[in-house]
């Protein structure tokens, strides 16, 4: 078969359209998530290596100023400027209606780093003072602070990941200049993460839920963020090779790679093509003999194998990232079949206009486009920059962060 090709030029054009023109109507419901959309776009161009050549210094400064406009006076960032009613109108009573939120704060900081800002305008102390207030007694994090300082938002490993990432960026290795600022409760956060591991080895959104590829990534990313500035969590069972927790986690991650990349075996209404009513009238032995023969397959006969996020699901572009990045952080990426994953992405979900769709035949969107591309970057795809699997941005961006005087 011909070697699949990553169409760099079309991907660059796709991201530039997303950055400099209006997004499609379907993005309207994501208006409050503009900080995330900005991250997916800016980081996409950065990983493609064209952010500075395809934007001007004036444009990049404009993006930086927009991000700082989303900074909340008491620390942290809002997801978009739509809730900002102005400093002159803001009071301690009404500020709960324009709160900073955990994910937007993390993505705002990463966006600034991608744009090579020095973070001098970030309300560093205020943000780090706010962070422990959004942590619950069980170690989990909410999304925002509501009336009376109440933590709002579900218990969710995604918030834990963004909180740990914010701490990593703003505290630095030694917490220079932050000696009087209370830290988050790291042991309780680690305990909450451990409690999210399920019976099958994967990680759930919160304890006693279903394991999920995205939440599994968030669990390991949270621990890696903590590890980068402290050695206190290196002995956590999830990260300890040979432990039953780690072995179960690796087995679950590897089993997420699947050759089931479409629902072609189902009829148009989504049901099994066999008549269920007629099956009910057949005796058990007859049912067994009536089962179709399934051709055995081996690794060398599978051309396409993406990843799913949960058991018994078809492949989805973004899970090539969520599961692959987790294996990268665990230093076990070699356990996957990289060639079949690459073919799945390039021949099945890469779109003719640029970007990637969720699945076969789907139009491109920013999230799947970015994570599909990053998955290929992990495999050394030509034309793509190296990507840090924890911060999920170019290694150049991480080097810029770690070069800041107060971070070291």
Automatic annotation (TrEMBL):
One Pfam family it belongs to: Prenyltrans
Source species taxonomy: Eukaryota, Fungi, Dikarya, Ascomycota, Pezizomycotina
Any one GO molecular function term: metal ion binding
Entries under SUPFAM superfamilies matching the protein: Terpenoid cyclases/Protein prenyltransferases (SSF48239)
Domain Prenyltransferase alpha-alpha toroid residues, every copy: 6-391
UniProt name for this protein: Geranylgeranyl transferase type-1 subunit beta
EC number: 2.5.1.59
PANTHER family: GERANYLGERANYL TRANSFERASE TYPE BETA SUBUNIT, GERANYLGERANYL TRANSFERASE TYPE-1 SUBUNIT BETA
